[in-house]
Protein 1
Amino acid sequence: MSEPQARPKRAEAQRETHEPVLEVSGLVKHYAAGERGKVVRAVDGVSLTIGEGEVLGLVGESGSGKSTVGKCVLRLTEPTAGRIRLGGRDITHLSRRGMRSLRRDVHIVFQDPYSSLNPRFTVGRIVAEPLVRHGVARRSAAADRVTAMLGKVGLGPETRDRYPHELSGGQRQRVGLARSLILEPKLVVADEPVSALDVSVQASVLNLIADLQRDMGFSCLFITHDLSVVEFLADRIAVMYLGQIVETGPRDRLFAAPEHPYTQALLSAAPVPDPAEQRRRSRVVLGGDPPSPVRPPAGCRFHTRCPVAVDRCRTEPPDLMNRRLNGDHLTACHLVSSDSLPDARGTRA
Ligand code: SF4
């Protein structure tokens, strides 16, 4: 993937003075598993906020619970516990009618643009559909707005009359973006929006998302398994492991000085453009697969794979807290203290 352009840092003071667009507190989502009485603890106590015009990158391996957080925010699945506020309004238990207005304010960009676009509809009808559904414009009057929105995502007016199967993967994702943004939502949940695309077009779609976000000013929950993707897009990053956030902080600080051994492992695996730097890096190879969310380990959930775990880690869960007194960088690890960091780099699990 060629490198997308780095996103400029946002003024932190601007975020602090505004009410968050999204505020999630103590979110829990448990599912009944196939076996009788078994429960999958997909999300277990996640709290996060996203400010106006801010991009939060939510990162984790498959099964970490990051997509379930996105589904709860969109109310595509019912939270087991916790609270979700959008623009200061509690949306945790919205009625069916309330859900209609929510669908105007929050939109999703799906991972697989092909399966999310109706193959029997033209692009023009697909992109106009949110306008018609929410009574913003009749189908006949929506044409100008659709053409303008297609232009914003880099597609010409002729695309309106084409069908999804006539487009490339990158073009289909642009159509998905146009449909998600035509109502100018407050919040966009982008769930792995480039992972199904060819590597050759990933960077151009990421750059497009960054440009649209800057121009339109929407807030974004950007969900991905790939830390290198959010390095260029996110203002802040939250790293999830087995249903919980283990580290969160401003993008630059988290990339420059990751505190949690899991984040250190993810970063050590991310490719860097400079081959000499790549050779110098010590890679942390984590042993085994993540444990089952049906029976998460006691103590720190990461202890079964952590290269620097100590006895305390097996019994005592660490709180997510600011351990080094450095702004809003929070970590859930017993070994992080104001004067030292665990360093998993150079160790092998
Ligand atoms: Fe590793 Fe212990 Fe820190 Fe968990 S609390 S990340 S097991 S050192």
Note: The radius of gyration is 21 Å.
Protein 2
Amino acid sequence: MKANIVLLPGDGIGPEVVASARRTLEAIAQLFHHQFVFSEYLIGGCSIDTYGIALTDEALEACRAADAVLLGAVGGPKWDDPTAPVRPEQGLLALRKGLGVFANLRPVKVYPSLISASPLKPEKLQGVDLIVVRELTGGLYFGQPKGRSRTTDGRERAVDTLEYHEDEIERIVRMAFQLAQSRHQKVTSVDKANVLESSRLWRQVANRVAQEFPQVRLEHMLVDTAAMRLVSNPAGFDVIVTENMFGDILTDEAAVLSGSMGVLPSASLGTDGPGLYEPIHGSAPDIAGKGIANPIGTILSAAFLLRYSLKLEEEARQLEVAVEKAIDMGQTTVDLGGTYTTSQVTDAIIHHLLH
Ligand code: NAD
């Protein structure tokens, strides 16, 4: 197949890890006789330095016209001033909005050889293979009205509004069920239905969507219980679906299980249009340019790109297997206890892929 892939390396270690992921995609193209056409654009701090804005219209248009977008990371000390009118994260927000992505998928898998790197006891981590589907465009982070005012006694008051519409809930819950169909047939819908009206609507819609998927089991769980279960029995989860803020918190909690930020991928998807794929880590300015960044989170994001945007399941699986082999053989960067450089890890993964 032929596919157009836009690369947005960004700042810090972004260019190093995106270059690695590109090499693995080129190896996949060679192995399976696909034609992947890559184009590269600036995003974040480097775009601010060159164009004065974090994402140009030209870059966004190229992303919109592509089959998929692979991003490194944005930001760094040079652009850290929180009062600056132009900031690197604005590029990410503009991109997510411009692509119409509303679901953020974050898988957490624990590799047997990395179990000792996790803060949890090894027996709790056996068989952990879950994915969190977080709603990205609604809820508290976008609710109106919001803002500050003063009460009659001159004290300050702040307001945020948690709003969800039925169709916003329906599309994300449906995506979670579709995912569960190709996994372990279980969806855990996380809410706070004992307190929040928006959660009661969420639950009602989830129950309705569940009827379309009779073979998938739906359980409802309060967010406080889910936070606890993620550390007491993480292997009990398959697909978790939840609203924006709960998802923000739970995905960071879940990320700790794997033992390293450097190995976790993510995907942001909409109903149609290109998906956006990126590692969950930031631009790691402390190690940028040293050639020691772990490329695995970005390479696994590329595997997600193959699976979800290009529908190349076998190719995605083989890339994941190659990554797993490298991890099992200790062919890893220092953050995972290895001695390999970024490009040596990439070479090892490509070697496993081709042999
Ligand atoms: P970070 O994820 O960049 O780094 C946290 C720690 O993890 C650092 O010690 C770093 O060296 C290490 N680390 C991260 N990725 C690694 C990898 N692939 N291999 C080896 N080690 C890795 O988070 P931070 O330090 O809080 O943020 C640094 C910058 O990144 C900030 O400017 C922040 O705004 C930005 N950031 C961007 C994104 C994004 O682009 N999506 C996400 C988070 C943070």
Note: Residues 13, 17, 73-76, 261-262, 281-287, 293-294, 297, 333, 335 surround nicotinamide-adenine-dinucleotide (CB under 6 Å).
